[in-house]
Amino acid sequence: ALVESSKRAAAFQAVADHLLPSYTRIGVGSGSTVVYVVEAIAALGPSVTDSMTFYPTGAQSEALIEAANLRLQYINKLAPADQLDVAFDGADEVDADLNLIKGGGACLWQEKVVATAARNFVCVADFRKLSDRLGKAWKKGIPIEVLPIAAPRVLGELRAMGARDPQIRSGLPGKAGALVTDNGMWIIDAPFAPLRLPSDEGEAAEGEWTVDALADRLIKIPGVAEIGLFSGKNGLEVASGAQKPVAAYF
Ligand code: DER
To answer: In which pathway does it act (predicted)?
Structure first.
């Protein structure tokens, strides 16, 4: 109850602070916290939301938008230079620099495309997600979306990089065998030692990475489609001029 009420409070505050009535294009992330974001948006009523269009990040997000009777559209309908005004999404962990681990809900690939298509990206996360280093609170590993046939080779690369027992995410209890994403891919969860912040002193130990160095390395592994590390270096600032998440709500 405490966690759910904190998710809901964070979501309503984030919408109050960052959904301006003048906005027309809004990205909607995935997971359980974003359910409250959509509830808060719908609560604004048709006088506000009728002029808005909502862009999903996967099947769950699409269903949320439809269930709330909000106007649904897909980002392939945008012109290449078009941007969303804001995208709201959850996270599995948020560090002091607002770098995120995302992908607990296996929706990270489309989430990152939508997040980087937005001028503003607002992360909504309950207090459990706040951490001074990524990997301290979220211990299941960095979610990585991979081409299924390449998964064994990616696992080998991850072990060589110091990942601790990386695993292909199972579909159980819903599905025997590997979980399959909205994009027909698999997810590998790769636990690393807590990630260093640029401000950390001293040499990195074996298998210890900074967010940016790890992100730059992971994305290059053949067979990796996208990674569940959101930081300024892999897209949020470069692709669309969007800054790091403008705010994280706990
Ligand atoms: O998959 C994701 O990145 C989601 O945003 C998700 O991990 C956040 O999940 P939660 O809001 O259910 O904690």
So the answer is: Carbohydrate degradation; pentose phosphate pathway; D-ribose 5-phosphate from D-ribulose 5-phosphate (non-oxidative stage): step 1/1
With beta carbons less than 8 A apart as the criterion, state whether 214 and 220 touch: no
pLDDT at 249: 59
The 10s digit of each residue's pLDDT in 159-184 is 999 999 999 999 999 999 999 999 99
CB 27 near ligand 1, within 6 Å: no
Tell me whether 0.95 is exceeded by the ipTM.
Answer: yes
CA–CA dist 218, 105 (Å, integer)? 19
Tokens 């974003």 appear where?
Answer: 34
Radius of gyration of the chain (CA): 18
Residue 146 CA to ligand 1 centre (angstroms): 18
The Cα–Cα gap between 216 and 224 comes to 12
Which position has the token pair 């705010």? 247
pTM (two decimals):
0.92
